[in-house]
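Input chain follows. Return structure tokens only.
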Amino acid sequence: MNEKDVLKQSVKVFIGGLLIFIIIGVILKQISFPLGFILGYIVSALSFYIIILMSDFILKMGQTIKYVVMMFILKMLLYVGGFILAIKLDNIFNLISVFFGYFVIRITIGILGFLNRQ
């Protein structure tokens, strides 16, 4: 499994999750649920891209601890930024759906790992 497969399959998982949050949003008459899920997925995809860059950088450059730490801090700041947006703009982004959006890439990796074992 490579990162391109994960990103392609994550779109399918994202669409499935988005449909669930659209249904929840329609029932509760709030658009913040699907918008929060979209925000969470975007942050998750950016974080995954940072992990890819960090891995490539480690393989090419060898032992460069300070760059790895900086990229890790950048990744954590992305997650914090998504939560801060959800808290400050609670009428636009729902905090719980942002949280679930963060897990789309991880769920995709789990699904692909399960399918590749069989």
